[in-house]
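In the previous chapter we treated chains in isolation. Here, by contrast, the input contains two separate entities that must be folded as one system, with a combined length of 576 residues.
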Amino acid sequence: MIYDEEFETLPREAIEAMQLKRLQDVAERVYATVPFYKRAFDEKGVKPGDVKNLADLRKLPFTMKKDLRDNYPFGMFATPLDNVVRIHASSGTTGKPTVVGYTRRDIDTWSELMARTLAAAGAHRGDIVHNAYGYGLFTGGLGFHYGAERLGASVIPVSGGNTKRQILLMKDFRPTVLTCTPSYSLHLFDVAKEEGVDFKDLSFRVGVFGAEPWTENMRNEMESKLGLDALDIYGLSEIIGPGVSVECVEAKNGLHIFEDHFIPEIIDPATEEPLPYGEVGELVFTTLTKQAFPLIRYRTRDLSVIHREPCRCGRTLVRMGRIMGRSDDMLIIRGVNVFPSQIESVLMSRHDIAPHYLLIVDRKGHMDTLEAEVEIKEEVFSDAVKDLQHIERDIEKDIKDLLGVSCKVRLVEPKTIQRSEGKAQRVIDRRKV
Amino acid sequence: MRVEQISIFLENKAGRLAEVTRVLAEAGVNIRALSLADTSDFGILRLIVDDNDRAKAALKENGFTVGKTDVVAVEVDDRPGGLGRILNILSKENINVEYMYAFVQHSGKDAVIIFRFDDIDGAVKLLTENGVKVIEGKTVYTL
């Protein structure tokens, strides 16, 4: 079902005319209100007035994650804090989170886009939404929550964790829509099975799964195990949170990007030049309507592809392919963004281990596992087991405190982790996604 | 009254222990006593050898992480209750045994046990006062 017939099915010319008008507007606004953008535009020798048509977008500067960090916490806000009604944050590369803000109208826009998202997946008024995305600083929980309410569905704000209790609620409340990370959906299935509950005897019809990459094979597995239509959703807190793009249940083939609010580009991450439709590259987004936290040409580091062929659902919005990887080294562990550099910063701050490490990511059952091999220093080597185990526990605690993700630490002999001349291999990802 | 023990950090990896014995054999070092403590992640091999310096040098040269600790060697009557008597003396004075292991001895009527204490001097004093025979390092290396 199409939630907003008018804006989701605009003719191409009308979408582009609207995008141009809004792009000119946001360029004027950030140049005037965000010192970072004034500097960035000036350094490129470009003025907001130089945007005469959509192709001029490529003249504008990029925004990198580093720029957000440099302006921590509120330096990128384009409105006074008086107008900001919500603040969310996601993990950054070096301990400091990435902070985003929303005005009342931004929350309204976000709710509207999430209502569109849920409708595209096949949800409607009268549905009961079991929302197992985490509530809190993470945008997943509240994003889905507001969208489901806007749609007129009933939301169960169950958040993450306490899986056995979730199974009980599923049995008794009979929710029809499941929203969570793909790996958690399969974990729910396993726990339900242990509890003697078959998912097919529950009332689920639709699942909207995101916050981590997944595959067509996983779709087949989830649909047959969970007995529902499994749809992929994409978003990131910098752009708005979930609700940037979603698959339609009619085609299940690519995620429609809400182009009346965001302009997507695919660029070559090395040359930074825009690539034509159909070519794989890094996704870049410009927000068109956000007030508190507008971004120009934000480099997501996610690799994907954009297609503009018409879709049988009737939406005229372009579609992006599933995320195929990263143009940097970010890992997603149980839905949490983890950069090897974060773990490195923990290791570097300790005197008892060498600055060499190897991260091993794996999936046991349906849950991601993270393990770090670190080299012990000869000076702290002890003949007592408890001393060495204490070092391991201590590092594990430091990592958990910083990342919010458990990481098993294993001490290995000095000089056994591979050194290389160029870019050392620091991560082994054994997950088959 | 102290005996020098060397300890070696071992990853849980096939062949690492064999590699230690090979290096020591090639260096002409004889192992007098040993114990291996292991966890799921790593092991610690503790050795009393006849030539500590040569053993350490050879192991380091081959990339092993080697530590040195002082332990105490105690002669224990080789009969029921022999070890129990010594542990009783220690526990009465609240002296904690970090770990212990038995010596490999070819003959004789007494057994030799290696103790690792946090408070070595206190332990040695207490044991001697109670008539327990504590053996000197140079005797142990050549036993």
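Chain A has two domains: 5-328, 333-429. Residues 12-33 of chain A form the longest helix (22 residues). Compare these points with the single-chain example from earlier in the chapter.
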